[in-house]
Amino acid sequence: MRNGLIVILMVISTIMLAACGSDNENAGDNSDTGEENESSKWEELQEKGEIVIGTSGTLYPASYYPEDSNELTGYDVEVMREVAKRLDLDLSFEEFGVDSLFSAIENGRVDAVINDMEITESRQERFSFSDPYKYSYSTMIVREDDLSGIEELEDLEGKKHGGGATTVFAQIAEHFGAEIVSYGNVTNDVYLRDVENGRTDAIINDYYLQSLALKALPNINVKLHPDLQFHPTNSGIVMAKDASKLQEEINAALQEMREDGTLTEISKEFFGGKDASKKPEKDIREIEGLEL
After folding, report:
1. pTM for this predicted structure
2. Which of 12, 19, 95, 234 could share a disulfide with 57, CB 3.0–4.6 Å?
3. Which residues contact 1 (CB under 8 A, 6 or more apart)?
4. Considering only CA atoms, which of 12, 59, 102 is closest in space to residue 291?
5. Is residue 31, in this structure, part of any structural domain at all?
6. CATH code of the domain covering residue 157
């Protein structure tokens, strides 16, 4: 039995690709090999008829187990189920702590990852991403009585931020001078109570996830900061860098789902009637001087 509360973590790792050949053969052979490598993952999946997806299983409402249920669900999970269906592939999920998801692609334990993973330039240098299936922005959970002494992002200087050390959100916190207090694969009540009791001061994370976290845990004396909305984001399905044919097929399925309203329908089911598949219409602060 699994508890369907929330963990807020994200991660980054690396993947390398090598090729060899003589100088005389490079022009022809490398081109052919590149094309074969780019399509081989897709051909492999078609042959076995199944795609294996890495996810955390603890990130509500993206990937989680509802209370009294052993059935994995969530926005990301159901999006991936629909994608696999349209690709005519069986689907299985493998669960990892978020700090291990990218390495699971690297070592071949999964074919792709879906876990509210933000698309960043540095990650795109190492991995392939699908087109976005979710758009959002970052907010900050603080203590209810005094906003943890934070009126603007610059007030994070000297504060303690709760979250995974390798996440984009930790990078933002560190950029403004906060100390990172990291966790393992724990549920979100642990994070929120640490802000409440002063072990940490703030949690930066996705607006939709944090809104639902607070709704699920109303007895913890924390709140979304009323004045801070920043760092617009988009999330994609992550694949190995050379899996361009798989990327193409997944993008085609996502586009179909966008056009026929399936993405909107799934989003409204898990985000309280809100459509996270479309860009928010808000004035959101871009963070200058931070390369993610």
Report:
1. 0.73
2. 95
3. 65, 68, 70
4. 12
5. no
6. 3.40.190.10
